[in-house]
User: Fold this.
Amino acid sequence: MANPNLNYSFNRRGYGSHQAIMEMVRFGTRVLDVGCASGYLMESLRRTKNCHCVGVERNPDAAGEASALGFDITVDSAMAALSAIGREREFDHIVFGDVLEHMVEPLEVLERYRTLLAPNGTIIVSLPNIVSLVARLRITGGIWRYQDFGIFDRTHVRFFTIRTGRELLEQAGLAIIAQRFVGPLTFYGGRRFQTMTRLRPQIFANQMIFGARSRASLGQSNRSKWTGDDS
Assistant:
């Protein structure tokens, strides 16, 4: 079986989840990338947005590639890495880019990592949409065959719709303040098809990207400082 931690790379086709995540990250901020794989997203954030990035990656080979790029990497599972990261560290952004669906207890992970947010910090989550048009057609046709990548990734243990993805964040004590939806239309047509995808995201979106803040911090923050699209 292919190792997804080593095979994933930065998406440069059209407008996808990586572009959406990067739009939600502010310039010059401190970023923790949970499930950072080989560090491709952190490298792009460092190069284009001057971010200080650290990562968590349980696959030692992928973590080694990220470390070779000069990043501080904790090699462990998301929950076990918390003690190594240390409670004294705070982050402006904590990114879970298509990793929560691989976890048995994503709610507990979000609740624990929420405590590492700096004031006005955000958690950015990308999740696959199990009821997208592509997935619906396959299931309607009686096809459920696991693959190495995508919605039917063989390592997925959780499956989300847009509603249950939002509910997950809300149950973790987070308030969603920005969202993006990407799918085949944006992958091949770019940003100009983002509006169409957003109109019927439950059909056209393969992935949903949410930016969220701790509900406890919202009374102290100014929404105008957020650079994302609140649609």
Summary: The beta strands are 30-34, 52-56, 72-74, 91-97, 117-128, 174-182, 207-214.
